[in-house]
Design a protein that fits this description.
This protein starts with a strand and ends in a 7-residue tail after the last helix. By secondary structure, the protein is α+β, with helices and mostly antiparallel strands. The relative contact order is 0.29. Helices cover 26% and strands 30% of the residues. The protein has 3 helices and 6 strands. The protein has a single domain, classed as 3-Layer(aba) Sandwich (GIY-YIG endonuclease), CATH 3.40.1440. Strand 4 and strand 5 (35-41) form a beta hairpin. The longest helix has 15 residues, at 75-89. The strands form 2 sheets. It has a 4-stranded antiparallel beta sheet with strand order 3-6-4-5, with helices on one face. A two-stranded antiparallel sheet has the order 1-2. The protein is globular and about 30 Å long.
Amino acid sequence: MNIAGYPFDGPYDHNRGFTQSFGCVYALINSSNNLIDVGETSDVNERIPNHDRKACWLRNGCPNHNLYIHKSPDQNYRLNLENAIRQRYSPTCGVR
């Protein structure tokens, strides 16, 4: 899936971890193809399974296989991409 012109892999189940940890920008897309949330992390397995906005994801139609990821080890790149996506789509969850 492309989000703001960037390739994202998925969908993955946001209730399960990955076999390896990695840095990424993550996005939650509901069944109507609306971007619900976007964020960045240096450790996907630490951030996603117990995310503080999971209740918002569920309220907005993301029960399980709605996670998309764009891997990158570079934190500045991830922060810039997260910000660009957030500004373009104004996701429902995680408004700053």
